[in-house]
Amino acid sequence: MTSAAQAEGDSEDQEATQEEAAAAFLDEERAAGSPWAVLSVTTVGALLASVQGSALIIALPKILTALRIDFLTIMWVLLGYLLITTALVPIAGRLADMVGRKRLYVAGFVLFTSGSLLAGLAQPQFHGLDLIGARLVQGIGGAFLISISAVLVTDAFRHHRVGLGLGVNSVAAAAGFLIGPVVGGVLTAISWRYVFLVNVPIGVAGSIWSVWRLREPMVATLHERFDWLGAVSFVVGLGSLLLALSNLAFPLLPAAIIAVLFPLAVVGLAVFIVTEARFPDPMLDLRLFRNRRFAISGLANALNGLARGAVLFILIFFLQGPYGKDPLTAGLMMAPFGAGFLLVGPLSGFFSDRLGSRYLATGGLLLSAAALFGLSRIDHTTSYLALGSLMFLMGAGSGLFMSPNTRDLMTAVPISRRGIAAGTGSMLLNTGQMLSISFAFPLVLSKVPQAIMFHVFLFGGGMATQPAALTAFESGIHQAFLISCGATVVAAAVSALRPAAPAVDPSRAAMAGSSA
To answer: CA 20 to 30 Å from 57, out of 188, 316, 329, 429?
Structure first.
């Protein structure tokens, strides 16, 4: 064979390889479904959850009086959802990798909708316990929606547009936070039950839309066994730890039970670590943390949650206490935070596809740290212009951080492990948030009589007649925000250590170019 013929043959082989790669790329894209169709589904889920969270705060006074429940119980209406979601998101992510994303995302809609219906039907004779139970059902559904949402967007948009997809998806969460107080105020004026019941038609529509528009992007790995021991030990260990810490801030359980929860957490987490190291198909694959980009993104997520988990609650207390606003007005005055996130989040995601994640994510944390330091100086004489500006910077910093960091977390693992990656990231963020609440609220509330805080949080009206309580409250806020600022600076230092991964996966970019 002549050299010319050999060269021609090599060229034909190379073209055939490129055509096969392009065909595989297109098959993968078709399997994931239309990116914007997928985004329309995940947007409904994000909007549903975020509107519920901010609208519920406005409805709490009416719920408390209607169901005849106390301050601690009403706080567990809020915390119970976060606790169950935190414990279950890794399990939801693992199941998504095993049995498929679509069916579990639809199941999340169904469970969240069912929990909303049960919450809207809560009765006074149970004194809020049935409402807490309904919120736990909502939390189970929320675990599926939260953990699988990022997976669906990542699968659909692929590496060269993942940041854009995640950034646009964040708009729904920010928009929900903005309109939630308005929705809550309008619905509560009719009946507090509609704050929950309005989710039912939206959830039903979301379920139908998910079934119609989503495609299953991967073949279920039915040959893998589910790690039941790892799942149970994880829920027992982490759940016991977070429940015990939360009860230190809001004591709902007897002291004897709280004392048992701490050793139970140690045993549960020890069994979990041993199990995950030995099980061939672990529930939470700890080997993923050998990937530096994944490990740093996960740790930054946890530290960010620790830094800002209690911030919004503290600001609500501040607006209703030192500022003397009613719950609805206080909720509306939180709008600058959502506006900052709404404006910066999509842009940050878009640019992370071109510039990478290191500088954007780290810059977002530094911006949040500056805002938190400013918040550590506020008092009842601070103008709303100054306070609103700090809230806007805090929201912008969060938006600048979240999309690039999530992009790194999701693209650092193979497609068959994206469910675990998403669940792990959400678990680390939520764990940080719950730890934040458990340390921040004792700092803020420990020297303020419970009766005063009860009235301030549920009805507003200020603390002008209680100067000693006002001074103690503002001192606690300053300490909490300073600690949050320090945690954010540490998170920024960790984030800066992430490798400068290429903004666009070269192999996928080549495939996309070949298929054009």
So the answer is: 429
* One-letter amino acid of 409: L
Which DSSP category does 502 fall into?
-
> How many C-beta atoms surround the C-beta of residue 426 within 10 A?
28
Q: Which of 235, 285, 159, 246 is nearest to 435 (CA)?
A: 246
Give residues with Cβ within 8 angstroms of 82, minimum separation 6.
139, 430, 433, 434
Residue carrying structure tokens 């009765």: 123
DSSP, res 326: -
Residues of the chain with pLDDT under 70: 1-33, 158-160, 174, 177-178, 217-224, 252, 457-462, 464, 501-516
For residue 372, give the nearest of 484, 473, 475 by alpha carbon: 484
Nearest one of 365, 67, 428 to 357, comparing CA atoms? 365
Its pTM stands at 0.79
Note whether 511 and 22 are within 8 A (CB).
Answer: yes
Question: Encoding tokens for residue 2?
Answer: 């002549």
Q: In whole angstroms, what is the distance from residue 219 CA to residue 98 CA?
A: 9
User: By CB neighbour count within 10 A (0-12 exposed, 13-18 middle, 19+ buried), where does 37 fall?
Assistant: middle
Alpha carbon distance 433, 246 (integer Å): 11
Query: Which residue type, as a one-letter code, is found at position 265?
Result: A
| Per-residue pLDDT, 20 | 46
DSSP 423-453: HHHHHHHHHHHHHHHHHHHHHHHTTS-HHHH
As a whole number of angstroms, the distance between CA 30 and CA 47 comes to: 26
Euclidean distance between CA atoms 4 and 1, whole angstroms: 8
User: What's the Rg (C-alpha) of the chain?
Assistant: 24
Residues 6+ apart with CB under 8 A from 361: 297, 300, 352, 400, 401, 404, 405, 408, 495, 498
Q: What are the structural domains, with CATH classification, of the chain? A: 31-226+281-506 (1.20.1250.20), 227-280 (no CATH)
Tell me the per-residue pLDDT of 90-123, one tens digit each, with 9 for 90 and over: 888 888 878 778 888 899 999 999 999 999 999 9
